Amino acid sequence: MGHEITLQVPARVADPNLNFKGQDHAAMQTLTLNRGKCLKRELVDSFFRVSRHNSDDVIQQKLNDTNGPKNDQSKTTRCRQFVEQELYRGWDLRLKALNFCEQEAADLKQELDGKMEAEIRTEKSPVLTARMDPYAAAEDLELRQARYEQWRQLTKWISNQRAVEDILQKNAAKVLTRACDPDTAYIDDFKKFRASMR
To answer: Which of 9, 48, 98, 178 is the most exposed place for a label (fewest CB within 10 A)?
Structure first.
């Protein structure tokens, strides 16, 4: 009945009130997801909100910090470090969470379908049931649809979150193209980054 995935999350993403000023590598915390946390998404929604705020929502400010006069590295190097150490890692963690919940949704649907098929095989003839109780067919259909409601809500949430991620990545790529390197295709670069992390 489901699996778990544990993600290593920077502490500053897990708790926005922790201040790690002057610290390049924040302490890591674990975020464990399972089917229950995908279905009741308060923790995942909170993680997404904080993660997006700490990277995508403040991308221009982060780039301004890396481009400041106090920094001795080249602009390209500073941009690359921000992109790989913060932005891409945040995108990757969120996609891992979405992929996990998507697999849990597929497993849940398969389990529900199996239960439905077993019930259909063992129940009385629909004609006989309808003669005995004319409302039985409608009640039965309503009950079966209710069982799939959590699955429908989860798949809708996943679809919405993927759309948000797509928009955030495209907006970030535009900002990075202007502020860092106009010759880098950042979304393709992120795909290569993800492949190298496996």
So the answer is: 178
Per the structure, the count of domains in the chain is 1
Question: Are the CB atoms for 160 and 152 separated by under 8 Å?
Answer: no
Q: What is the pTM of this model?
A: 0.80
Please give the C-alpha separations between residue 135 and each of 60, 91, 124, 131, 146, in angstroms, as whole numbers. Answer: 60, 50, 15, 9, 17
The segments of the chain whose pLDDT lies below 70 read 1-2, 11-27, 65-72, 123-138, 140
Q: Is 110 a member of any domain?
A: yes
- The domain of 97 spans 38-197
Structure tokens at 38: 């995908």
Residue 191 forms part of a structural domain: yes
